[in-house]
Amino acid sequence: MRQTKERYRYSIILLKQLVKTDFKLRYQGSLLGYLWSLLKPLFLFGILYIVFVKIVRVNYGVENSGGYLLLGIVLWSFFAELTSGSVTSIVGKGDLLRKINFPKGVIVLATGFSALVNLTLNLTIVAIFIIIGGSSINFGIFIVPLLLMQLFILSLGIGFFLSASYVRLRDISHIWEVIMQALFYLTPILFPVAFAPLWLQKILILNPLAQLVQDLRYILISHSTVTIDDVYIDRPYIRLVPVLITLLVFITSVYYFKSRSKYFAEEV
Amino acid sequence: MNNIAISVKEVSKDFKINHSKSTTVKAHFVSILKGKKDRNIETQHALKNISFEIKKGEFFGIVGRNGSGKSTMLKILAGIYQPNKGSINVQGKLVPFIELGVGFNPELTGRENVFLNGALLGFSEAEVAAFYQEVVEFAELGQFMDKKLKNYSSGMQVRLAFSMAVRAEADILLVDEVLAVGDADFQRKCYEYFQRIKSQGVTVVFVTHDMSAIRQYCDRAALIDGSKLIDINSAEKIAKKYIQLFSEEKSQQPLSSKQTKRWGDKKATYSKVSAELVDNDKNILISATVKANKKVEGAYYGFMISNEARQSVLGTNSMIEQVKAEALKMGETISITWKFPNIFNQGKFYVELALMHNATQVSDWWEDATFFKISNEKRTPYIVNPKTEFTKDKMWKV
């Protein structure tokens, strides 16, 4: 019991320092420093906004299409940063693993929390857009933390799996890159859900990422956003499917990570 | 039971070495198609069925040659590797000293590294802040703490790392010999520290192949060789056994002609070469038998001693010693000896013998004909180490 408590305390201390170190190192030597965490999604947003809203004139069916697009991009960036960052995280700390015994999960958690810090910064920009765009904030805002938690758990789960499997199979980094490309288009970031025929919508929205992005847009940007409830009218229990997928991904990944983590030091 | 710090029970460790390096999907598929198991995976037994116990407050040595498995043992004790079989029971907080400055990042400042390394040692930020000033003073790095670590000299880095390491409040300390790398002053500091914590009741497990350190610091030691535990005994006995192990191996496979260079026309050849310490270790005696296979005119004899670093230490020949060169009859056998004072430092020395005739003709030139070992209490960093006397006396002013 005492040992578990000690180990927990150690994990927290370590996690804090690793996140701090990561933050210090990330933009070291760059002129704008931390600002880049904000500027990068903003530039991406600017480009996509010009292409999709101004040139292609995609109709998102919402009043604040800027905020709609930006929120999608910010959420996607978080997912992408956390998962791709996790892939090499364990191998990248190989030097440490071979010299000291510490809870290995801390490494992936540190990647997760670094991404979370960035997400928080980016969400403040989204907040500005919401205020300018005049979206109405309602009681649904209390669900936002829950949805963000679901996103965090989903991304972490995938991160645990990727980081542990990359130790044995170095193709994972390339495979994940390809999957990310596919996922980007399987998630309604750029295109409105209504673009797809209903039968396809029914499949796409079961992807937890799609469900999350749409739910958050619904609460923060516009109630005209198509959510899982709109796709499956009269079947509200379907809403549980992406949540269960999230939990399943997380639990199996953590289990896999735990069973592999004993051998990281010798395999890495 | 209560005075046991670490108990190791029937621990075995195998490493799977993958020769094909198939860490790609393609290779995995290929190996699946070929049959279940990848034939290129070789199992290496790093440790076989090892059991021992270390008492609380003990300074315990683990000795063995390179590749014997002693470092694997240390990593298993540290919890870095998992044993395939057996169990380890550790009582108390264990801190591994496998390397100094674990997690040091060259891009961070000295200060930031102190906090990072502190976290790895299990200290919260507040705890590190509390002893931060002491660390800086101990490392003598006052004005450098806000500079990046990459701008530190290696000596400064080691000083900083060591000042952090000594902070670790361990019940059990695992120390790898890599720690003993560093200048003499630093080594002394390390050992002083180990002595101090030992007096505080901390258990120290020390892995090395430096027998003088084992003799000097350890209470008991375990000898590991060929992945097996050979013996656990007092430090003195283990140190002896370790040296024996080395010489046994050497005598089992005498310097074969493959390894040693030997050339000449073989008109006369050396055999039964030996080198030994005589006269209470004061002198060294080299003896050999010379057999003339043919008639040899004007034979003369030489030898040369070189140390492990292959530096020539001394040598001479019978011409220099003004012994008249004489002919050897065919079939004649003579014995020769060389005797000279033992002026050597500790270590291993190689004996090179030469048999010449007709002034320049080589009959038998034998490098590494034999060797001898010197163990000296007194050690100097120079090539020779003769018995030296030093006096000092007060001079009285009248």
Could you name the key traits of this structure?
heterodimer; A: 268 residues; mainly alpha; B: 398 residues; alpha+beta; Coagulation Factor XIII, Chain A, domain 1; 6-stranded mixed beta sheet; 6-stranded antiparallel beta sheet; 18 strands
Explain what you see.
The complex is a heterodimer of chains A (268) and B (398). By secondary structure, chain A is an all-alpha fold. Chain A has one domain. Helices cover 73% and strands 0% of the residues of chain A. The longest helix of chain A is centred in the middle third of the chain and has 29 residues, at 105-133. Chain B has a domain at 262-374: abc- transporter (atp binding component) like domain (Coagulation Factor XIII, Chain A, domain 1). Classes of the chains: A mainly alpha (268), B alpha+beta (398). Chain A binds chain B through residues 6, 9-10, 13-14, 16-18, 20-21, 24-25, 28, 96-102, 168-171, 175, 262-263, 265-266, and chain B through 15, 23-25, 28, 75, 78-82, 93, 96, 98-99, 102-103, 105, 107-108, 112, 115-116, 118-120, 122-125.
Note the main sheet of chain A.
none
Please, what is the average pLDDT of chain A?
Answer: 90
H and E string of chain A: HHHHHHHHHHHHH
Strand order of the largest sheet of chain B: 5-6-7-3-8-9
Overall spatial form of chain A: globular
* Structure summary, number of beta strands of chain B: 18
CATH H-level name of the domain at 262-374 in chain B... which superfamily? abc- transporter (atp binding component) like domain
Instruction: Give the helix proportion of chain B (percent range).
Output: 10-25%
What is the beta-strand fraction of chain A?
under 5%
Low-pLDDT parts of chain A are none
Number of contiguous helices of chain B: 8
Radius of gyration of chain A: 20 Å
| pLDDT < 50 runs, ≥5 residues of chain B | 251-258
Number of domains of chain A: 1
